[in-house]
């Protein structure tokens, strides 16, 4: 296996990603290795974020520069308060940067304090809580973004069925959120984020509230979803092991103000299994990141 590469500069390779929205058969996913990466899809240049709080000025992010390639899976880690969620909210159009530029496929996500909704059409967002509407069925929840875009009922139902199959919820299309476990509800939330076939999927600790066994299972499911959709994923987590298991690169942020301390390339073969975490290569990467994190204490 290739050794880990650590850098603070964008280091991606490849010419093309898998076609969006086309689902390969199970064997194709199982046989896939590291996905080929395409051109830069997300880029942050000189991003700063300052809050004006009652106690004064709070600098959340300072001079963040990061390029993420099409089809890449990038994990963000760091201590609580380092700005991981702030960075994700800026990428998702929920929070404007104080300065700097943020682009998706060359389109600016922010124009001053105004967000560019056209650029954000290609972005899906998954929170720590599933946030499903309890009065809608699973299929209706999944199809809601399409309904808001004017897609007809039949097409919404077909897309919901397709996505339920992808995330392992086949047969639960007509169920209500209260009838599903926490892990199943989060699968539905991921399916909802994928309903409009986004090229970019932003995930803010989506498995943080799940028990350890369910979380491990969801990590396996997520890498299959990533392989099947070809989406570019930015994943926020407090777990270094989870970050390394899922990612092509792990971005470590310093304590406030959040700056990029290092970017670690993860060259472990895909698909990854539970045995991957026992490998010497995996443990070496995790130990190295923990040492860096401890140095920031």
TrEMBL record:
Entry keyword set: ATP-binding, Nucleotide-binding, Transport
Keyword Transport: yes
Matching Pfam families: ABC_tran
Region (Disordered): 1-34
Comp. bias (Polar residues): 1-11
Superkingdom, taxonomy of origin: Bacteria
Signal sequence region: none
Domain ABC transporter: 42-280
GO MF annotation terms: ATP binding
Protein known as: ABC transporter ATP-binding protein
Lineage start: Bacteria, Bacillati, Actinomycetota, Actinomycetes, Micromonosporales
């Amino acid at each position: 296996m290739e050794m880990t590469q650590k850098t603070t500069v964008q280091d991606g390779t490849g010419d093309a990603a898998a076609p969006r929205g086309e689902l390969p058969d199970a064997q194709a996913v199982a046989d896939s290795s590291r996905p080929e990466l395409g051109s830069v899809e997300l880029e942050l240049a000189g991003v700063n974020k300052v809050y004006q709080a009652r106690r004064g000025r709070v600098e959340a992010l300072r001079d963040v520069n990061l390029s993420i390639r099409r089809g890449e899976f990038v994990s963000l880690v760091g201590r609580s308060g380092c700005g991981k969620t702030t960075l994700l909210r800026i990428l998702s159009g929920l929070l404007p940067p104080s300065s700097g530029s943020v682009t998706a496929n060359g389109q600016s996500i922010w124009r001053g304090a105004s967000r560019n909704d056209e650029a954000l059409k290609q972005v899906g967002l998954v929170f720590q809580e599933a946030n499903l509407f309890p009065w809608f069925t699973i299929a209706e929840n999944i199809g809601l973004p399409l309904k808001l875009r004017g897609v007809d009922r039949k097409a919404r139902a077909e897309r919901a069925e397709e996505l339920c199959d992808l995330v392992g919820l086949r047969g639960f299309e007509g169920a209500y959120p209260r009838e599903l476990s926490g892990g199943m509800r989060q699968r539905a939330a991921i399916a909802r984020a994928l309903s409009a076939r986004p090229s970019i999927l932003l995930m803010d600790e989506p498995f943080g509230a799940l028990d350890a066994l369910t979380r491990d299972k969801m990590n396996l499911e997520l890498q299959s979803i990533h392989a099947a959709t070809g989406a570019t994923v930015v994943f926020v987590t407090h777990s270094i092991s989870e970050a390394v298991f899922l990612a092509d690169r792990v971005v470590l942020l310093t304590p406030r103000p959040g700056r990029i301390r290092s970017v670690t390339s993860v060259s472990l073969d895909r698909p990854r299994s539970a045995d991957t975490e026992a490998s010497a290569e995996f443990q070496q990467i995790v130990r190295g990141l923990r040492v860096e994190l401890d140095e920031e204490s």
